[in-house]
Amino acid sequence: MKKITSIILTLALLLGACLSITSCVDEGNKIKVNPDKEHYVVGICQLAPHDALDAATEGFKTALTEALAKEGRTVEFKYQNAQGDSNTCTTIVSSFVAEDVDLIMANATAALQAAANATLTIPVLGTSITEYGVALELDGFDGTVGGNISGTSDLAPLTTQAQMMIDTLGLKSGDKVGLLYCSSEPNSQYQVDEVEKYLTEKGIACTHYKFNDSNDLQNITLSAAENCDAIYVPTDNTAASNTSIINNVCEPAKIPVFAGEQDTCKGCGYATLAISYANIGKKTGEMAAKILLGQADITTMAIDYDAEPVKKYSETACVNLGIDVEALKEAGYTVIPGTEVE
User: Fold this and answer.
1) 230: nearest Cα among 196, 261, 254
2) Number of folded domains in the chain?
3) Are 46 and 81 in contact (CB under 8 A)?
4) Which residues on adjacent β-strands are paired with residue 272?
């Protein structure tokens, strides 16, 4: 009897523990938001030091601070930069989860992926993400991630970019465009695939030139420059951090580079369809405030975009390539600050 009683008690304790664990798991999978707090702690994981990413972070911090201040609340930011290392993103985000921050802002794809893998309960907002469906491997992505993730995208219309290349360079059927991007960035793959579809329909031949990192970027760029009439570089973190390598090959060879974003264009391109990273950072901060204050449900919050991308050009690059700057101005292009010819 004693043995039976002992077994029954043990089973009861185990059942109670299981029920407790189940309750914790169910409770744990609920997104943690406390709209009654006076002071919030927000973790920011930024993939790398870069002007565009920096602008997004600053826009986020300013917008969130101002929005909470209007409600008499304060916020503390725990900012860490992964210096371009995706593994460091994982370490950073894990520390935020351990500290139980109120929200995580993930700046760039690797940071978002790390946050998505680290927590189901802390609200996560991405920014500087090109395509969330690709970054998070979502089937049938319809613009809303669901769960504890939302944010903003730095994607500018890709078919418009492809047509801009055709218009500004006079590309025609039979011309060759090199698609230069980092093999480890799925968002870059998505962009070049979409641009290739459009250009191919126009009879323009496209070749993929994938580099692994900055170590083989020069050789891959040399190959692209030798075999193509023009090069397309998407919004790509590795390329953006190494524009001097691309420019040192393409500028003397007079190979035009169309860039997916402004800072890459400033470093090595002649034209771009530019979004404002400060604007998408600001939008992300406004989204964060609504989530923290209980004014919006992140599970139904759609990904937001910069509503007004702008056609821009590098004057120095255009002059070097012999592209008519006046014609660009008449077509609505504006010069990228710092690229003017003196």
Assistant:
1) 254
2) 2
3) yes
4) 259, 312
